[in-house]
Structure formats: C-alpha cells, structure tokens
Amino acid sequence: MLNFLKDMTKSGFFNYSGHLPQPEIGDILKVRFHGNGQDGFYKLLTAKRAEAHLTCNAVKEFEGTLRLISPQNFGFVEDVFIDSKIIEERKLNTGETVKGRAIRSFNKKKMNGDGER
C-alpha cells in the first residue's frame, strides 16, 4: 500500500503492486485512478514516476536555521516542522543550518496539512 497527498483536498492510499517497483518516500508520481476513492482507498489504473524536473506542492526543498521548541524537543526551519526523532538522531541544536526535503503530510488531529519531514 502507498499513501499519497495530491493537495489539501485529495489524499488517500492505493495498492501499487504490479505498477511501481520499490517506490520511495518523497517520490513524485503520475497516477490515474478508477473513479473516486472509497474511505480513502483508490483503485489504481496506471502509475509511473514523474520526470526529475517536475515539482509538486506537497514536496519542497528547504534550507535554513533550526529553531528548537523546548521541552518537547521538536523544531522548525521557517515553516517546516522537524520531528524530535530527527533532532535526536542527528544531535541537532538551535541555530544550526539544516537542509532537506520536506514532505507535506495530513495532520488528522488538526484536520489540515502540516509540513512534516
């Protein structure tokens, strides 16, 4: 199964078996679905990786200064949320320059999208 986010109005999941060899988090795909999804599940007709130059509103490259939020130990680089697990794994500190790829995710608690890495 693969979870997807097209934009703030369309997200869900689909079975990619037989359509995509080893998709990775952050891949931008071109897909066609059969009809509308049911309870977030979409039936896949076709799928392929998009060309390398193609961009998407759900993925963005970022670089900037990390601002930690204590005591929860999560942080932000501008509007990009950095999870505490990443901060701990990489031993990051406030003021460090951080560079990466942000992938928008759907925050069910807030019922909207949050930029989450």
TrEMBL record:
It comes from the Bacteria. Residues 1-44, 60-111 form the TOTE conflict systems S1/CSD-like domain. InterPro entries: S1CSD-TOTE-1 (IPR054426), S1CSD-TOTE-2 (IPR054427). It holds the Pfam family S1CSD-TOTE-1. This is Uncharacterized protein. It comes from Chitinophaga horti. The lineage of its organism: Bacteria, Pseudomonadati, Bacteroidota, Chitinophagia, Chitinophagales.
